[in-house]
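Course assignment 3, question 2. Fill in each field.
Student: A.L.
Task: Predict the tertiary structure for the chain below.
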Amino acid sequence: MPVLENYYEHLYHNPVVSLRGYCAHHRLQGSILAYLDFGGATGSAKDGLAEGMLALAAEQGLLAKGQPIVEASSGTFAVALTIAARHSGHPVTLTMPEGVPDERKKLLRSLGAQLAFSSPLDGRRGAERLALELAEAQNGYYTNYFANDLNPEYHRRVTGPNILKETDSRLDAVVIGVGSGGTITGVGEYLRAWENTVKVVAVEPYESQAIGGGFPGRHGIAGLGAGFVPENYNPYVVDRVMAVNTGEAQRAADEVVRTDGVPADVSGGAVLAAARLLVEKGEAARPLCVFCGRRSLE
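Answer field:
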C-alpha cells in the first residue's frame, strides 16, 4: 500500500463487506452487503464529508485560503468540520443553542473551535440565524450542510461511484438512512444516471417520520430523523421510504457485531433492519446498506 499524503485519502475508499453471518443467523434467502463509510476521528461518515465539502468549496472558488468557516452545529459534523478546517488552515466558529451539554462544548473548544450561543427557545433555527450573521460579519464561509449542495455533490463524486465499483453494479437496492439528506441524494442521483435499475430506499426512525409525511418525534437513532425534511433531500430519486423503530435498530446493530464483527452504530442497525425486511419479503435479494457510523465497544 502506498504512503498516503494525508489520512483523508483513506476515507475516500471504503470497503464493502458481505454480511454472511447476519444473513445465516436470520436464514435469509439472499445476501446483504454493507458499505462501511467510517474510519476517521469521529468514527462516522462526517469525517470524509467535512473534508470533502471544504475541498469542493475551495475548488469552486467559494472558500478562500484561510477564510473563516461558520456552521450551525454541535454534533458529530461539528467535530469533523472543526478537525478538517483546522487541518486545512481555516478558523472555525460554531453556533448552537445555549443548552448544549458542557462536555460537548469542552470537546469542541479543545479542538480549536470558537463557540457562539443562541437562545435555547429558538432551537436550530436560532443557531442558523446566528451563523448567517456571524458569517456576514467575519466575511466567513457558512457550510450549512443541511442545505448545501456540496454535501450531496461529495456523495455523487465519492460514495456513489465507490459503491458501484466495489459491487460491480450487482445490486438490487441501496438502503440509506436520512439525516442531512446528502448521502441518499448524492448516491441516488448517481445511480439514476449510471445504474437506473437499482432501487433507492430511504430509512428514518419510526418515531419520527418527517420524510414519509408523518409527524416528527423523539427517538434514539442518532444521526437519522432530524425532525424535518432537509433541503438536501431529493425525493425524486427515492423509490421507497421505510421506518424502523429504535429498538429494532439497536437489536440489528447488536447482532451484526456478533455475527460479522462489524461495529455498526444504531443508524447502521436501522438500515440493516430495513434491508433484512426487503430480503424477507422478496423485494431485494441483494441489497446494500450504507453504514455511516461506528460505535465504540469499550
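Instructor remarks: Residues 150-167 form the longest helix (18 residues). The mean pLDDT is 95.
Grade: pending
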